């Protein structure tokens, strides 16, 4: 499932409301300069058709479809959040502001306040009007202890002042401090007060575990077959379907995610036409398995290599500093120097990937390009471990008293096994024993979020600008259900992060961001692995796209709830099925799109 990075960013960081629905209307300032945007480039194709079903898959069934609270950070969460519009959004190529639930916006002179005119046409998926009260309810919702989401409780208590209601369709969102690029923090989403009956119940987690909450976007969950599949259906009466920025998008009638627990099995389903697209990110699929596909060689399936330009996932090893073995910085550094990424990149990944140098790559001037990831170096491992009083045991693994340099490495994707075995063998030469433990996706995320890991291999995404507070501030350490997977608790780092969050000067924020990245590198609890500036996919030829099939900020071709650019052509499918029955073939086609390739 492809996640829409930027709408997710707005929803996570900016859903805001008053603490109490009891208030008196305030008077709207008269000197507001209202802005809108009806001239941004259109990304969809006028040739797009409505109809059809897109069939995809999940490797594990979600524990819940809640988007907040325990166990919610997995499964189809991105799809559900992608169907909740924000007040404004960002253009996927130009990054200019676009209207969504608000038609107009304006900035206050205090650099803390942003005003919005709500679209009077906006409806919840159950037909109820979206009004200012739904924005007022969100802060109450997000601050409630009943949602069991400490990160949200803290953020919406410490960062947001209030939402002001001027009338049912005019609001202002006020930050507790002046911040640059205010629209990135307050491009917010409402919460349906009527659905929750104006309160957050004490049994929220259990009551709403499988509740289908009304949304404002093009699709809604229509069927849950627990353990097997989840279906989304297009709202054919969607209130925004004819708006300028949404025409030609969100075209299929239905999207089905079936559970297929292994990628190799999913690939077989794809070749039989039972799954409509398959990611070819892994070299073994792109260079071998997809090249030998009969359906590709006969032209029934196409392949695409698309270069994008997005902030890169912080994909790597997260070392839990609450575990005794990783309390020593030398040991953390030794772990990093025991990971032979260069061998993996050259021998297994065939040069298709590059070394990720830090967890903040792809953010332009905010990225500290002077940071370099620690490389495989047995000599440095020997030096670091000896300094800390460790000695090689009889089997070559480092020992210190009752401690042994042997750690359990959790991961949730079976196809990582091949290259993790390579790293395991190389690490053993350096005196580190990696015990690999493959878990299903939901169990893996649950264990990591509850701090039950020693080392977790995973990727954390961000937004348009680096976000450090959730992953590295001590406020989020030593507690479950947070993104501080390394349990970093460093007073000096806290001060830098606090200053970064409070600064209103862009140049100062850039400098602070770079200092924070240096500090994170010095702590050494995150060991970056690899990255790429593209996505690769195979798909059946009846799926159609605009001339440029994706956008600069796309992280996948079938971004169903983000860009939603693809459409189904029944005539091409009929032609293809008849050709397959008769033995007719088409030209094998591999498309490379470098429209947004950097350098």
Helices and strands, with pairings:
Elements: H1 5-14, E1 53-58, H2 77-82, E2 88-90, E3 97-99, E4 102-107, E5 113-118, H3 132-143, H4 150-158, E6 160-167, E7 170-175, H5 183-186, H6 204-207, E8 219-225, E9 229-234, E10 254-259, H7 263-271, E11 277-279, H8 283-289, H9 294-297, E12 301-307, E13 314-319, H10 329-337, H11 341-348, E14 354-355, H12 378-387, E15 391-392, E16 398-400, E17 403-404, E18 406-411, H13 417-429, E19 433-438, H14 441-449, E20 455-460, H15 469-472, H16 491-502, H17 506-523, E21 526-528, E22 530-531, E23 534-540, E24 543-544, E25 567-568, H18 570-582, E26 590-593
Parallel strand pairs: 1-10, 12-26, 18-19, 18-20
Antiparallel strand pairs: 2-3, 4-5, 5-7, 6-7, 8-9, 9-10, 11-23, 12-23, 13-20, 13-21, 14-22, 15-16, 16-17, 24-25
């Amino acid at each position: 499932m492809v996640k829409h990075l930027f709408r997710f960013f707005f929803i996570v960081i900016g859903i805001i409301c008053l603490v109490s629905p009891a208030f008196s209307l305030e008077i709207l300032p008269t000197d507001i300069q209202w802005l809108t945007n009806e001239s941004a480039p259109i990304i969809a194709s006028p040739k797009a058709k409505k109809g059809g079903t897109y069939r995809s898959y999940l490797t594990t069934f979600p524990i819940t479809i809640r988007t907040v609270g325990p166990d919610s950070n997995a499964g189809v969460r991105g799809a559900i959040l992608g169907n909740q519009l924000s007040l404004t959004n960002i253009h996927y190529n130009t990054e200019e502001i676009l209207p969504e639930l608000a038609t107009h916006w304006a900035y206050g002179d205090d650099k803390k306040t942003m005003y919005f005119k709500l679209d009077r046409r906006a409806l919840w998926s159950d037909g109820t009007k979206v009004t200012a009260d739904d924005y007022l309810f969100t802060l109450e919702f997000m601050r409630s202890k009943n949602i069991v989401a400490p990160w949200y409780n803290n953020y919406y208590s410490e960062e947001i002042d209030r939402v002001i209601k001027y009338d049912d369709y005019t609001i202002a969102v006020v930050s507790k401090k002046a911040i640059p690029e205010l629209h990135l923090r307050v491009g917010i989403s409402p919460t349906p007060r009527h659905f929750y009956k104006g309160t957050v119940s004490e049994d929220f987690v259990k009551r709403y575990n499988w509740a289908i909450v009304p949304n404002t976007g093009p699709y809604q969950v229509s069927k849950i077959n627990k353990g097997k599949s989840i279906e989304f259906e297009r709202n054919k009466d969607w209130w925004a379907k004819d708006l300028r920025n949404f025409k030609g998008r969100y075209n299929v009638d239905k999207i089905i995610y079936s559970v297929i627990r292994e990628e190799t099995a999913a690939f077989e389903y794809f070749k039989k036409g039972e799954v409509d697209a398959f990611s070819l990110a892994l070299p073994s699929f792109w260079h071998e398995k997809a090249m030998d596909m009969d359906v590709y060689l006969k032209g029934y399936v196409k392949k695409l290599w698309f270069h994008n330009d997005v902030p890169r996932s912080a994909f790597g090893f997260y070392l839990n500093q609450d575990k005794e073995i990783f309390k020593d910085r030398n040991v953390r550094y030794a772990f990093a120097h025991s990971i032979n990424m260069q061998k993996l990149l050259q021998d297994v990944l065939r040069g298709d990937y590059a070394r990720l140098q830090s967890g903040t790559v792809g953010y332009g001037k905010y990225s500290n390009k002077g940071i370099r990831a620690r490389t495989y170096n047995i000599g440095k491992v020997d030096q670091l471990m000896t300094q800390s009083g460790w000695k090689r045991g009889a089997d070559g693994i480092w020992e210190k008293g009752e401690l042994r340099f042997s750690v359990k490495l959790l991961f949730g994707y079976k196809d990582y096994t091949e290259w993790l075995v390579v790293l395991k063998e190389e690490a053993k030469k350096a005196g580190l024993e990696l015990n690999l433990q493959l878990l299903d996706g939901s169990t893996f995320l649950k264990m990591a979020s509850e701090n039950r890991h020693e080392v977790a291999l995973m990727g954390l995404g961000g937004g348009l600008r680096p976000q450090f507070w959730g992953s590295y501030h001590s406020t989020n350490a030593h507690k479950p259900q947070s993104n501080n997977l390394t349990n970093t608790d460093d007073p000096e780092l806290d001060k830098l992060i606090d200053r970064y969050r409070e600064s209103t000067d862009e140049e100062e924020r850039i400098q602070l961001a770079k200092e924070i990245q240096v500090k994170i590198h010095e702590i050494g609890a995150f060991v970056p692995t690899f990255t790429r500036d593209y996505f690769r996919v195979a798909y059946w030829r009846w799926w159609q796209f605009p001339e440029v099939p994706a956008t600069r900020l796309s992280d996948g071709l079938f971004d169903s709830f983000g860009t939603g650019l693809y459409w189904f052509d029944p005539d091409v499918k009929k032609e293809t099925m008849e050709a397959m029955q008769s033995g007719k073939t088409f030209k094998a086609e591999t498309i490379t799109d470098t429209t947004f390739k950097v350098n």
